[in-house]
Amino acid sequence: MMAKAFNSHLGSLVLCAPAAVFIFVFFVLPLAGMMKTSVMDTTISNAFPALAREADGWSPPSPPTEAMRAALVSDLQTTTPQVLGDAVRRLNASFSGFRSLMSKTTSAIRNANGKAVDLSAVDPRWQQPEVWSTIVDGLRPYTDQFLLAAVDYGRGANGSIEPLPPSVAANQLTFGRTFAIAGIVTGLCLLIGYPYAMLAASVEGVRRQAILLAAVIPMWTSVLVRTAAWFILLQDQGLINGALRAVGILDGSLPLLFNRFAVVLAMTHILLPFMVLPIFNVLISIPRNLLPAAAALGANPLRAFMLVTLPLSLRGIASGCLLVFMASIGFYILPALLGGAQDQLISSTIAFYALSSANWQMASALGLVLFAVTAVLYYIYNQLAAAPQGRS
What we know:
By secondary structure, the chain is mostly helical. It has two domains: 43-142, no CATH class; 171-391, MetI-like fold (Orthogonal Bundle), CATH 1.10.3720.10. The protein is built from 20 helices and two strands. Strands 1-2 form a two-stranded antiparallel sheet. Strand 1 and strand 2 form a beta hairpin. Helix 10 packs across helix 14 (260-283), helix 14 (260-283) packs antiparallel against helix 17 (314-328) and helix 17 (314-328) runs antiparallel to helix 20 (360-386). The longest helix is centred in the N-terminal third of the chain and has 38 residues, at 2-39. The protein is elongated and about 100 Å long. It starts with a helix and ends in a 6-residue tail after the last helix.
């Protein structure tokens, strides 16, 4: 008996193994890598390995030791220009003027032809503990700099968390724009999807299948194909403007492309099924005799809807809204192709850091913030989906 039960469990594990391996390789490992990258920065330690060994245990306001000074000179002599340039850019963001200081110092070391170099004689700023503290702080492999910068915060001179200056703080604005557009899309999907789901739930047979099929067809089409279709429809010489000119309503063209209208319209079209299907699944579970009973008690159709149908369908509404909102905040292709500069979502910022500036730490930090928001929303959705109908 025990052997049979063991074989049954073993067979279940074998069947689940491919799915578990797939999830681990393509979800858990990339997520762990993103989390690690968002808090790890070895740019400066790669440029100054000797200084990293000598500075262990040093802290301001103590002056730097002679061994630290010698180690820095040695690192500047051996570090490649590419690695040093990356480190200098990172340090210059924390200490204004570091780029000119390092350029002056490396020139002096190069002109010394292997002789000893007095850093304080090259530039008096090397006497300031703040300069050395900036380098030593950057030598630590783990940092919260990128996570804080992802929400427009940073560390002050005394180590406290402070808001970044408005001139360099843009992520909160982008997150706000992302959530605002996602909220608009969610509201439009609810406004269109709820009556559509009620229509599908009110009929049966072939008519219901045809109505639901019309809603889910966009899910079967490539995003690029749908984007190209919206280009054809919305451009100045497109079908919509052409039709309006043909009937004499317009002489010119409406600006329908490369703006927020195009982004919201295309996203609503794509995400509408995610609103219709959860609401439909809840509506068809409502007993059909409730509305006739409400009418028998004297309630008109509007009152019956407000007191019976709407409260019982709130779980489907909440699930649909969460699904649409979660999908909206991660959109990239549609805003990038159909929107203007002021219509880009946070995904475009992540793509910029990852592809254009090769700042993988910042891209990972922004992605981690977006993942945290999505995880919270998914938890709420999962709780709603698991709740019995009576708890709605």
